[in-house]
Write a sequence for this structure.
């Protein structure tokens, strides 16, 4: 089972998943999703992240923004995403899944 390692500041959250999925969906599940003011269309750049591992190639929206976007990228296998260490509270969305505990 592949694992997405989510890093924010000094905290690390491992998240196992079954099949390729949009990064934003996995972050939502972890309760760590960055805001998506454009509704996930890839035009605002507010969900920019650092992403590496077994992931989709950057699409046209990401190429225009010059960065990986959580609303556009797909996680295909083991990967790591680094989120901004501080996010305004209005940009953090609560996930509907179980909250993750950080690994120190």
């Amino acid at each position: 089972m592949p694992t997405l390692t989510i890093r924010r500041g000094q905290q690390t959250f491992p998240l196992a998943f079954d099949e390729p999925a949009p990064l934003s969906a996995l972050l939502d599940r972890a309760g760590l999703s960055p805001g998506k003011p454009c509704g996930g269309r890839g035009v605002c750049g507010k969900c920019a992240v650092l992403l590496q591992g077994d992931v989709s190639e950057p699409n046209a929206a990401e190429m225009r923004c010059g960065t990986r976007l959580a609303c556009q990228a797909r996680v295909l296998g083991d990967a790591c995403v680094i989120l901004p260490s501080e996010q305004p509270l209005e940009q953090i969305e609560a996930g509907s899944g179980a909250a993750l505990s950080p690994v120190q």
Summary: Residues 23-30 form the longest helix (8 residues). Residues 88-99 have pLDDT under 50 and may be disordered. The first strand starts at residue 3 and ends at 8. The chain is about 15% helix and 35% strand.
